[in-house]
Each structure stands twice: as structure tokens, then as C-alpha cells.
Design brief:
Blueprint (H helix, E strand, L loop, with lengths): L1 E6 L11 H14 L3 E5 L8 H11 L6 E4 L9 H8 L5 E5 L3 E5 L3 E2 L2 E4 L3 H17 L2 E5 L20 H10 L4 E4 L6 E5 L2 E5 L15 E7 L3 E8 L4 E8 L4
Length: 247
């Protein structure tokens, strides 16, 4: 069994996030004891150095290994450079036990809200996924921008500019899970044999309607994938359950 916590869109800054909610979320996730935490971008609100330095202190409070990719807010104000200095590589590949692979993609463009993967990174992704198919690995791809529009998020403006090409690569390679953030709304789509899961905002004050700060938890076994939606200091319920043999 592998337990993964998926967090996103912290928007750490002087005014756009709730520190108390973040501290409660850190405690909750540490108590869960996940094998890893995947953070799908917008760690900061403006990409400023002081925000990344503040964020680093919070992220070090998580006890499980944490792997992050940048969001559009992180790439503002040359934050894409600061991300690499403070957080780490913007695109990466992690393989566990030779049969479980997580790939992180940088979908951000400097000082733009829209997302873009681009040809060089797309070619790199295809190469990595080819290896996963050959080795029959369980595969997760994490990126900030959603590849499919999210319901109840208003007018669609900031989906990946090359979403169609990326979605084709993800589905034809039978990626098991695609994890995103960006819209601050939780959602699951199943396309072919791929689950596309969006996380809400962990601790930002920028929430739509009655949505609450939340994070996703994935319980992955040999036979099934359970996806839980956990509201910070609130309800925790089964969001989706999918047999592995159907994916």
C-alpha cells in the first residue's frame, strides 16, 4: 500500500493565505503518516524571495518527503529562478521500488496565468513514460495547470495551451493518476484508463462560494485506488474508488 497526500495552492504571502489553517493542515497530514506529499504549485502568491523563504520554513514542518512543482504564481517576478534556489528542480522524475514512478512537470510561464508544457519538456515526458510502460510501472504525473476544464470554476481561461497534445500523451501511455491544482476546486475525471484529479487550495483565502480549504489523499493498493477529500478541520470523505484492474 502507498499513501500519498496531495496539496496545492498555498499562496503564501502577507495577505492571501491563512497561517492557522496551514498549521492545522500540517498537523493533520503528519498524523496521517503518508509515504510522500505531492505539492502541485502556487506555493507563493507573487514569486517573491521573501515568500519562498517563508514557504520553505512551513514545508520543512511536514514529516513525509515532499515533492513540489511550480505554479503560475510561483513564476512571477523571476520566481521560477527562486523556486529552483529555494525549493528544487522545476521538473523531475522519482521512481520508488522500481515499480512506482512520479513525474513532476513545470507547466508555468513567467508572468502569465496560462499554462504551457512546450515541446522539449513534452518530448522528455514521452521518453519517461515510454520507460514506465516498458517496466509496467504505476505512474503519476503532477503539474499545476489542469489538462481538462474543472466544473464550477467560471470562464475557462487558464488551461494548458497545449492541453490536447499533453492529454493524448498521458492517456495513450495509460498514466494512472494525473494530479493538478490551479483552480482551487477539487474534481475527478476518468478518461480512458487515466484518473485526472484536481486538488483544492490547502490554505489560501481565495475560495469560490462555500468551498473550504482541503487536500486529497490517495490510498493505492495492488487492487484499487481510493481517493479521499479532506477538508482542513472539517469533513473527510471518500471522493472516489477505482479498481486497479480497470485502470
Amino acid at each position: 500500500m502507498t499513501l500519498i497526500a496531495h496539496i496545492s495552492d498555498l499562496h503564501i504571502s502577507k495577505s492571501e493565505f491563512d497561517e492557522g489553517i496551514l498549521m492545522d493542515a500540517i498537523t493533520e497530514i503528519n498524523n496521517l503518516g503518508p509515504d510522500m506529499i505531492i505539492l502541485t504549485g502556487d506555493i507563493t502568491n507573487n514569486g517573491y524571495l521573501v515568500e519562498f523563504e517563508q514557504a520553505k520554513k512551513y514545508l520543512e514542518m511536514f514529516e513525509a518527503p515532499l515533492f513540489a512543482i511550480p505554479g503560475n504564481h510561483d513564476s512571477r517576478n523571476i520566481g521560477y529562478q527562486t523556486f529552483e534556489e529555494i525549493i528544487g528542480e522545476r521538473s523531475w522524475k522519482l521512481t520508488m521500488d522500481e515499480e512506482f514512478t512520479v513525474i513532476g512537470l513545470d507547466s508555468s510561464s513567467p508572468d502569465e496565468s496560462r499554462g504551457h508544457i512546450g515541446n522539449p519538456q513534452h518530448m522528455w515526458l514521452e521518453h519517461q513514460l515510454d520507460e514506465c510502460v516498458i517496466n509496467e510501472n504505476f505512474t503519476i504525473v503532477a503539474l499545476h495547470h489542469h489538462v481538462v476544464p474543472i466544473p464550477q470554476t467560471g470562464r475557462e481561461r487558464n488551461v494548458l495551451s497545449d492541453a490536447g497534445d499533453i492529454l493524448k500523451t498521458l492517456t495513450t501511455h495509460e498514466v494512472d493518476l494525473v494530479l493538478s491544482g490551479h483552480k482551487h476546486v477539487s474534481n475527478i475525471w476518468k478518461i480512458n484508463d487515466t484518473l485526472i484529479v484536481n486538488a483544492g487550495s490547502l490554505c489560501s483565502t481565495k475560495l469560490r462560494g462555500r468551498n473550504k480549504n482541503s487536500y486529497n489523499v490517495y490510498n493505492i493498493t495492488d487492487t484499487e485506488i481510493e481517493i479521499f477529500l479532506n477538508e482542513v478541520n472539517g469533513e473527510k470523505f471518500l471522493f472516489g474508488k477505482y479498481p486497479r484492474n480497470e485502470l
